[in-house]
């Protein structure tokens, strides 16, 4: 599967798959994307992912290129752009066909389990993204730069800090802490973070298990002082954070809450039949 791509109705080898150089995704990053985890050969939380993709397309005023049922047949990583048109900033004429590209990529599950057992490091960087990051747009250059800062510093993820000194989210994940009192805290939904699907499932688990929880912005100093920290994303589910800017989180090992959330995640996720 990982060597095959779906492009505008055709399944092609990666070597043959291509889009026009005048595609607005290439020219303007004018598009949206979505990623579904595959677990045991089945899509995880597909309905939530497709609903988020539909919302992103509506916010960008891009026509949905196919029905949700049809898209579910081909979706793993799906990217939809406004389509091919001569390079000009305004939207192309009505009826311009969106470009649809779908790909699959294998994940090293053993490597992820090793990371989860050890915990990951994050570093903080300024949040320089545009003001509509609630749209899962393909405009990801600030995220790329943040990820490279993290890699340069030997970390796996970057936590983005807004002008008020608060953590918004990770460059490719949602950010969480567990306070000294045992309360789980993550930034509330809004235009300044992506409504993570894994984030929403974790909140479901928290509510079912009756854990203390608060949706609010938290400061970098709160993160430094936290008992635990972790990140959530579709490709990683829950990964404990053991270091922030070189400072150990808690005792510097994966916390009990983050570890339990990772262990229980797929019991609560909606896995397609």
Describe the fold and architecture.
The protein is an alpha+beta fold and 273 residues long. The chain is 30% helix and 27% strand. It is built from eight helices and 17 strands. It has helices spanning 24-28, 46-60, 68-74, 109-118, 141-152, 197-209, 220-225, 256-268, and strands at 4-7, 10-13, 31-35, 38-39, 42-43, 77-81, 99-103, 120-126, 157-161, 166-170, 174-178, 184-186, 213-215, 218-219, 228-233, 237-244, 247-248. Strands 8, 9, 10, 11, 12, 13, 14, 15, 16 and 17 form a ten-stranded mixed sheet that branches. Strands 2-1-7-6-3 form a five-stranded antiparallel sheet. Strands 4-5 form a two-stranded antiparallel ribbon.
In round numbers, the mean pLDDT is: 95
Taking all Cα atoms into account, the compactness measure Rg is: 19 Å
User: Residue ranges: pLDDT <50 for 5 or more in a row?
Assistant: none
How many strands? Answer: 17
- Element pattern in H and E: EEHEEEHHEEHEHEEEEHEEHEEEH
Largest sheet: 10 strands, mixed
Count of DSSP-assigned helices: 8
The structural class is alpha+beta
Distance between the termini: 19 Å
Q: Helical proportion?
A: 25-40%
Q: Tell me what portion of residues adopts beta-strand conformation.
A: 25-35%
| Oligomeric assembly | single chain
Shape: globular
Keywords:
273 residues, five-stranded antiparallel sheet, alpha+beta, single chain, 8 helices, 17 strands, ten-stranded mixed sheet
Give a concise summary.
By secondary structure, the chain is an alpha+beta fold.
């Amino acid at each position: 599967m990982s060597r095959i791509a779906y492009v505008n109705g055709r399944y092609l080898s990666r070597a043959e798959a291509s889009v026009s150089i005048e595609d607005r995704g290439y020219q303007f990053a004018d598009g949206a994307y979505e990623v579904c985890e595959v677990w045991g050969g089945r899509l995880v939380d597909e309905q939530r992912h497709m609903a988020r993709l539909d919302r992103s397309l509506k916010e960008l005023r891009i026509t949905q290129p196919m029905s949700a049922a049809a898209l579910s047949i081909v979706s793993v990583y799906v990217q939809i752009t406004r389509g091919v048109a001569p390079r000009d900033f305004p939207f192309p004429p009505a009826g311009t066909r969106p470009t649809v590209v779908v790909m699959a990529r294998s994940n090293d599950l053993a490597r992820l389990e090793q990371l989860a057992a050890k915990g990951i490091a994050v570093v903080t960087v300024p949040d320089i993204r545009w003001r509509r990051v609630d749209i899962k747009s393909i405009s990801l250059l600030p995220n790329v730069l943040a990820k490279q800062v993290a890699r340069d510093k030997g970390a796996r993820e970057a936590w983005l800090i807004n002008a008020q000194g608060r953590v918004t989210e990770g460059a490719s994940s949602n950010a969480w802490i567990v306070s000294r009192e045992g309360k789980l805290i993550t930034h509330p939904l809004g235009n300044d973070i992506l409504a993570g699907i894994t984030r929403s499932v974790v909140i479901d688990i928290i509510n079912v298990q009756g854990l203390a929880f608060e949706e609010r912005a938290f400061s970098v100093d709160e993160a430094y002082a936290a008992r635990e920290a972790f990140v959530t994303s579709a490709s990683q589910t829950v990964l404990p954070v053991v270091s922030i800017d070189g400072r150990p989180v808690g005792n510097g090992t994966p916390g009990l809450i983050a570890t339990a959330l990772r262990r229980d995640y797929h019991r609560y996720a909606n896995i397609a039949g």
